[in-house]
Automatic annotation (TrEMBL):
Family: Belongs to the sigma-70 factor family.
Gene3D superfamilies: 1.20.120.1810, RNA Polymerase Primary Sigma Factor, Winged helix-like DNA-binding domain superfamily/Winged helix DNA-binding domain
Name the record gives this protein: Unannotated protein
Pfam hit, one: Sigma70_r4
GO annotation terms (biological process): DNA-templated transcription initiation
Species lineage: unclassified sequences, metagenomes, ecological metagenomes
Keywords: DNA-binding, Sigma factor, Transcription, Transcription regulation
GO molecular function: DNA binding; sigma factor activity
Length: 443
């Protein structure tokens, strides 16, 4: 594990603490889910060597890598899903599941193809709810699926051929850059040949990307119901696919779709973690939330009422306190500017009491009282005004003691008391007190 651990932590994408927690979790459970692994590796560059190293290490440790997609969408929602936009018309690949050649006498664990016949439960699809339920969004999905469906799937030999052309194009780019810097001399004919190879490499990269866009769709639709639109999930997956095309090494012996699946799922899970919620929730907590929510729905259907915390705790093998925490974390924040009512003429914030704040009438009275006191004090001497403002906290709401005021002016506390008494006597004069008397609370 030392070599792969060093590779994971030296790149700066994984901290030693995160890696130790991942190892401990895998050893304790005997298995790790791919989404959980990719959450830890979300900022790591998944080179082919790291890709193979992780798989080989898991095999040596006897830790199974669960690459299935979590069934996180209620079964009733999945039936009103991507069929409406034709998402199931697109599959990632035909034929057998991609596999990695045997190394060291054992076959590495590989990702299942999206068209797997093994699962007993139907995997969730991206529903129209994930696209806001708008017909316009559905039309965009149909148009996109129709466009990517025109590109034929690739065989293993065709993938290798494209990868070689990409590699030749990159070599040509390197030569042209060195020629531009003056470190390498190229004849005009060689420059033309390098430009031709560069363009051919770009075309091969584009072809390999387009031929695997259906793989992105088949993966993205499994992450429906997590707070992001299907089109956004596809877009994030496409970014992961393009990174996989850049990093793919055909000499390692594995099929491109096997390698690309990790990049695509890494990009999608990272986007969901960073963008789906206003307050980011780690992937492992999302899995716990989905488990509790799914159990809550099943119990509600079985009991024909909302299950209690204790019932949820028994069914999920969690403590009641943990269930309460998970349900609290699962709550979505609401904006105070959210419209309320059919006409949306008021906001949610209009109906929430500001606890501790003065009622509007009291706030207006306090403001006018302050103005009246300031006007009355303006007829006093400058020192008298300052003493009264400090003594009663008229400016900052913090009254001072006689001693504190005395230190402020360098006088005794007795002198401060005399100034205070004299000023109050002046304010009680009928000509001045008449304006303030209306503010007295007579109740």
């Amino acid at each position: 594990m030392n070599d792969i651990a060093s590779a994971l932590t030296s790149g700066g994408g994984v901290t030693p603490e995160e890696l130790q927690q991942l190892i401990a979790l895998g050893r304790a459970k005997g298995a790790l889910h791919l989404d959980g692994v990719l959450e830890v590796l979300k900022d790591l560059d998944l080179t082919p060597d790291i890709f193979l190293g992780i798989q080989a290490w898991l095999q040596r440790e006897g830790i199974e890598l669960d690459e299935s997609f979590a069934d996180e969408v209620d079964e009733r929602r999945t039936r009103s899903s991507a069929d409406a936009v034709g998402v199931d018309a697109v599959d990632a690949d035909d034929g057998d599941a991609p596999s990695v050649p045997e190394r060291g006498g054992a076959k590495l664990h590989t990702a299942p193809t999206p068209r797997s016949k093994a699962p007993a439960r139907r995997a969730p699809r991206a529903s129209l709810d994930d696209d806001g339920g708008s017909p316009l969004s559905s039309d965009y999905v149909r148009m996109y699926l129709k466009e990517i469906g025109r590109v034929p799937l690739l065989s293993g030999d065709e993938e290798v051929s494209l990868a070689r052309r990409i590699e030749a194009g990159l070599r040509a780019v390197t030569q042209l850059a060195a020629h531009a810097e003056g470190t390498v001399e190229l004849t005009p004919l060689e420059v033309v040949q390098c430009n031709r190879q560069r363009r051919d490499g770009d075309a091969a990269r584009d072809h390999l990307t387009r031929a695997n866009l259906r793989l992105v769709v088949s993966i993205a639709k499994r992450y429906g119901g997590r707070g992001m639109l299907l089109l956004d999930l596809i877009q994030e997956g496409n970014l992961g696919l393009m990174r996989a095309v850049e990093k793919f090494d055909y000499t390692k012996g594995f099929k491109f779709s096997t390698y690309a699946t990790w990049w695509i799922r890494q990009a999608i899970t990272r986007a969901i973690a960073d963008q789906a919620r206003t307050i980011r929730i780690p992937v492992h907590m999302v899995e716990s939330i989905n488990k509790v929510k799914r159990t809550q729905g099943e119990l509600a259907q079985e009991l024909e009422r909302e299950p209690s915390i204790d019932e949820l705790a028994r069914m999920t093998d969690l403590s009641p306190a943990r269930v309460r925490e998970i349900l609290r974390i699962s709550q979505d924040p609401l904006s105070l500017d959210s419209p309320v009512g059919d006409e949306a003429d008021s906001n949610l914030g209009d109906f929430i009491e500001a606890v501790g704040a003065d009622a509007p009438p009291d706030a207006v009275i306090s403001e006018f009282l302050g103005l009246a006191v300031s006007e009355a004090l303006s007829e006093m001497g400058e020192r008298e005004q300052e003493v009264m403002r400090l003594r009663f906290g008229l400016d900052d709401g913090q009254p001072r003691t006689l001693e504190e005021v005395g230190r402020e002016f360098g006088i005794t506390r007795e002198r401060v008391r005399q100034i205070e008494s004299k000023t109050l006597a002046k304010l009680r004069h009928p000509l001045r007190s008449e304006k303030l008397r209306d503010y007295l609370d007579e109740g």
